[in-house]
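Renewal narrative, Specific Aim 1. Our central claim is that a sequence can be written position by position from structural information alone. The example that follows is taken directly from our test logs and has not been curated for this report. It begins with the structure tokens describing the chain, in the order in which they were read.
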């Protein structure tokens, strides 16, 4: 992994401060990317189709409409997108009932943000029913607002979810730090004008100027997130 953390500078009263931290859910805070793929494999097996391993790289991090649509086309399965979405969400929620492991460093990071009164938002491409079930494991008290993929006309990789979260927190997107695990999510956050820390989960994320990539959420703390805003300005 590339760890290209920006240099830390001294914050003065005239420099912009970190106003909010916006966090992705699946694969970032909770170790559930395997859950989604397993749900997709099981549902399609029940429909008489076998998924290829290489398709996982295509569907990771995307909204349900894109992922399910791709798999319908790839398998030539005779099922409507809406019907498949219902089946996939039901299978995923069924798996959640057995417990959701948080990513290493997630609980510590959320506690650090709360201790310093930094507003946090959960910004997910998953549907509201899934987000609400997941919050039972992550802790709804950790977030000032939550955004679900089925609540907006356009979700990731469009900037809308992150722009909406920033607006609800009365924050300037340029003064928000985003933590994401997929290229799709990183694209959404960067398009919104936010500063991004990428923690790749299933697929690698390309290194480029201005993008911070770390190998684990355990490397992400308030000092790093604040430094992103200072260096950006």
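The sequence written for that structure reads:
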């Amino acid at each position: 992994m590339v760890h290209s953390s920006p240099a830390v500078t001294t914050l003065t009263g005239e420099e912009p401060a970190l106003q909010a931290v916006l966090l992705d859910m699946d694969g970032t805070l909770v170790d559930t990317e395997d859950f989604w793929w397993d749900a997709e494999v099981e549902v399609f097996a029940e429909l008489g189709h076998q998924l290829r391993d290489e398709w996982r790289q295509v569907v990771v991090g995307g909204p349900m409409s894109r992922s399910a649509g791709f798999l319908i086309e790839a398998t030539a399965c005779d099922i409507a997108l809406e019907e498949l979405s219902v089946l996939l969400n039901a299978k995923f929620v069924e798996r959640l009932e057995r417990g959701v492991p948080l990513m290493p460093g997630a609980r510590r990071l959320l506690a650090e943000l709360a201790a310093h009164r930094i507003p946090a938002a959960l910004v997910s491409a998953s549907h509201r029913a899934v987000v609400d079930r997941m919050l039972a494991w992550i802790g709804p008290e950790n977030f000032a607002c939550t955004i679900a993929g089925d609540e907006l006309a356009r979700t990731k990789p469009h900037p809308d979810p992150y722009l909406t979260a920033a607006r609800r927190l009365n924050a300037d997107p340029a003064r928000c730090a985003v933590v994401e695990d997929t290229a799709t999510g990183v694209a959404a956050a960067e398009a919104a004008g936010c500063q991004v820390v990428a923690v790749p989960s299933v697929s690698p994320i390309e290194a480029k100027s201005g993008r911070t990539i770390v190998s684990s959420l355990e490397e992400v703390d308030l000092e790093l997130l604040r430094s992103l805003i200072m260096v950006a300005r």
